[in-house]
Amino acid sequence: SPLPDPERLRELILRHTEVVSAPLCPELRMFLITPARPLYRASVTQAEAEGLPWPYWGFCWAGGQALARHLLDHPEVVAGRRVLDFGAGGGIEALAAARAGAADVWATDTDPAAVVALELNAALNGLPLRASDADVVGRDDLDVDVVLVGDMYYDGDEAARFSAWLRGLSR
Q1: Which pairing describes strands 25-32 and 82-86: parallel, antiparallel, or unpaired?
Q2: Which residues of 12-43 are buried (b: 16+ CB within 10 A; e: fewer)?
Q3: How far is CA 33 from CA 3, 12, 115, 134, 157, in A?
Q4: Do 150 and 64 touch, CB atoms closer than 8 A?
Q5: Going along 13-161, which residue ranges are E strands?
Q6: Whole-angstrom Cα distance, residue 40 to residue 116?
Q7: pTM: predicted TM-score of the whole model, two decimal places
Q8: DSSP string, 94-127
Q9: CA triple 86-26-121, angle to 5 deg
Q10: How far apart are CA 58 and CA 162, in angstroms?
Q11: Residue 73, burial from CB neighbour count under 10 angstroms (0-12, 13-18, 19+)
Q12: What is the mean pLDDT of residues 75-85?
């Protein structure tokens, strides 16, 4: 099937989210699905009918917030470095890396809606980052110093695939 139109995704994201700060990272504001929005309580079928199946990017997951908070509190982890935020979703970790002084931030997510959300969130915070839907798993030619992974281990088969690749990168 053809990829969704980025302008249509932008419109849907703006309609179904509101600008809020993540609880652990109040210095970063994001377009998120909150309890005030109908999509918060929607079923998968209802979300799909709106054109936003599985909108993981619309929530600021706890693991991602904790990692982002760590980067904001310890900028030396990423300052001056090239950073990849793998499976970025809405990009809390990428935003924190950019705020902490990373030389370059590349945020990837295979969900086209997440890429649009990443771009909206970066613009909202005035932070530079590159967002793409590249599937980087298995690639060992990445020109990065730090790989951030938050909240990607919710599927056993995928977790095994990610873990093997990440272990290889760490070598």
Answers
A1: unpaired
A2: bbeebbeeeebebbeebebbbbbeeeebeebe
A3: 22, 11, 16, 24, 27
A4: yes
A5: 18-22, 25-32, 82-86, 104-108, 130-132, 146-149
A6: 19
A7: 0.93
A8: HHHHHHTT-SEEEEE-S-HHHHHHHHHHHHHHT-
A9: 45
A10: 22
A11: exposed
A12: 98
**25 touches 92 (CB < 8 A):** yes
Question: What pLDDT does residue 117 have?
Answer: 97
Range of 37-46, 79-88, 159-168 with top mean pLDDT: 79-88
For position 51, what pLDDT does the model report? Answer: 82
Question: Residue 163 carries which side chain, given as an amino acid letter?
Answer: S
Strand pairing report for 25-32 and 18-22: antiparallel
The residues near 147 (Cβ < 8 Å, ≥ 6 apart) are 83, 84, 86, 166, 169
Q: What size, in residues, is the chain?
A: 171
Cα gap 112→15, rounded to integer Å: 17
Amino acid at site 109: D
Query: What residues pair up with 84 in beta bridges, in sequence order?
Result: 106, 147
End-to-end CA distance of the chain: 37
